[in-house]
Amino acid sequence: MLDNLYSKREITEYLKEKSIFPNKNRGQNFLCDRNIAYNIAYTVPKSYSRGELALEIGGGLGALSSMLIDIYKENLTIVEYDNALYNHLKEKFNNINIIHKDILTFDISDSDKQYDVYGNIPYNIASPIMEWLLQKSYGKWNYAVFMVQSDFAERLTAKENTENYSALTLFANFMADVKLEYNVSKEVFYPIPKVTSSIISITPKETDIDMIDIFKSVSKTLFHNRRKTIKNNFINSPYININKNCIDEILKKSDIEGNVRGETLNLDKVIKLSNILKEYID
Length: 282
Known about the structure:
Helicase, Ruva Protein, domain 3; rRNA_Ade_diMease-like_C; methyltransferase; single chain; two-stranded antiparallel sheet; Rossmann fold; cytoplasm; EC 2.1.1.182
């Protein structure tokens, strides 16, 4: 059994003994710094308090899990997809609920209480996990604290008229408040990744659920071709089916110039555009 979850030497020996090979395709870089694990576990967004239940997405070797168990005890649930890591976690922590499952197919709506959600999120599934959290699990979580690659954190927190501003930025901030807490050195992982990571906190907004799909479609339309104008993207959008003759009227009602790019619109403008567009779709 791996006794010291924060020793690179012991982790290396344990992985070799168990024939566990970090999967690059799954972005498996194991956190092995006690202070970072502690800071993630004890990050609580301002004006929020801890709930009774916690969910960890991907327990890995258990560095963060160990800290979360100190806080939530048996009320922690870990969802781990990797078979070898699942078996490791079951052996390491026998007093909590560990589920062998793809998080994207996991339904947290069975509980009548909200979860505090944590995770060290691989880049290649970061966007689907955000969609799972923000939309599929809407109303079932209290707050989330994730470690993600820094460039993904920058996409979530980008401002209009910047290169990282995107449909993902708009959707994430329509559904939640996303805050960059701090950056993390790549040296705190094994194997050492090529990029730095960031800790983000996510707190849900009260959102009109009837507007979620239309807002997402509008956001994707605005960035359908980043170099094209808003009007051009609406004409050629595969995401929205409207009478093309109404586009000028919709943009005028929204106080939006059709000859500018989608990256110039802030969140409030896109919300207004979505509300007006909905009248033409219904």
